[in-house]
Amino acid sequence: MKAFPIRLEPNADLRQSLKSFAVEQEIQAGFILTAIGSLKQATIRFANQDNTTVLTDKFEILSLNGTLAATGIHVHITIGDGHGKVIGGHLSDGCIIYTTAEIVIGIAVNFSFQRNPDKQTGFHELEIFSLNKRE
Length: 135
Description:
Layout: E1 2-8, H1 14-24, E2 30-45, E3 53-69, E4 72-80, E5 86-91, E6 96-107, E7 111-117, E8 124-130
Antiparallel strand pairs: 1-6, 2-3, 2-5, 2-6, 3-4, 4-5, 7-8
């Protein structure tokens, strides 16, 4: 495993930054080890919903989990507001950094993640490929 720490600055789009990082680093099988920071806007798709919800306030990033690859990412976020109310869902474009986001990304060097249409779910689901050669 390799680890890549990154820091996102104010006004960066969290999801777009993660996608760009995965492409620039040619990540084949990445995952988020830890993340903290803050948002001034959160755009989240809640469970079993087709549309996203935009929340404009100051939020703490409490958790960020998911898989990353140059071919696509799937990340969920949990945020807390100024009253301690916690909400979470599917990370969408439009989550804008307020002060910072400190993220450590792990890379599984012997694997490749791909997202392909799944006949059963109708979504692009994770497919895992081993890069180890068996002889």
